[in-house]
From TrEMBL:
InterPro entries: Peripla_BP_I, SBP_2_dom. Keywords: Signal. Its main location: other. It is found in: Cell envelope. GO terms for cellular component: cell envelope. GO terms for molecular function: carbohydrate binding. This is LacI family transcriptional regulator. Belongs to the bacterial solute-binding protein 2 family. It comes from Ktedonosporobacter rubrisoli. It holds the Pfam family Peripla_BP_4. Residues 51-306 form the Periplasmic binding protein domain.
Amino acid sequence: MRREISYKLILVPALLLALLLAGCGQVTTVQPSAGTGSGNGGNAANGPIKIAVVPKAVGFDYWEQVHKGATCAASKQKNVTMQWDGVTAETDVTGQVNLLTNFITQGVNGLVYAATDAKALTQVTNQALNAKIKVVNIDSGTEPQPANVPLFATDNQASAVKAADLLAQSLGGKGKIAFIPFLAGSATNDQRAAGFKQGLAKYPGLQLVAEQYSQSDANTALRVTQDILSAHPDITGIFAANEPGVIGAAQAVQRAGKAGKIVIIGWDAAPDEIKGVQDGVISALVVQNPFKMGYDGLNAAVQMVRIGAQVKSEDTGVTFVKKDNLNDPKVQAVLKPSCENPPL
């Protein structure tokens, strides 16, 4: 979902912004339905406000669903301008810090973002709070997570325990398995890793023989999975903990001629992942609700700015998707969300 961008900047600020935003992805602005104004200088109770929404990275189906949810929420608010922007790689922590700092300098009223690194982004949250900017985290928070900064996210640890259960059930509770996490230091990665290993502890017949990071890159996931399959040709199961990892692992299994012979439990629901489920390459997916994260996160920020609401963190839930429930209407609402039929 794309909206026209409208800027009224004189030359020098425009050049400065161009330098600050170098290396970032697309910028989308949803203009308010009425009124004008910016930053903290307006009447927050009913005047125009600006909310910046920043994912871990642009260019991934998962984050585009977050974008759709936030855009939907903004379109239903009055006098709310939402600006969406992000770096192009989830590993670009410095780039995200710079981008968020720029939004703080601009004086937005609210900042909704997914932290690429739980510890490194703490300083950004504190900087925004000190500037009287309301902050909401989506998908991934910081360490520590301030009490006045709600987090709209999956219960990653509990869901990853269930991913281990799915793998064990598919393998009859025994076999050699591999784990493809994505980014060490990312709160979501670390929670999923802890949950998966917690779940594995219930199944002594499952032997974790390999663990390699994908760096949230499908090509890297393909390469490390190929390396794992070469080193351990008797592997019978793989758990990949995010979209790029699942796509790369599935490609490696297919190229090895082992599709359907190695059980893959994945995370997220990009089109290539869904096709993998349909084709029998991927056994099951742990599907989050990124649309809801964007939708509820944007609305929370508006309420915090407008009326000083004390917003609690929220588990946005998961859906376990297999070939036999792909056409269920509730599953389809999560897989193909829209503003007309939101999975809320």
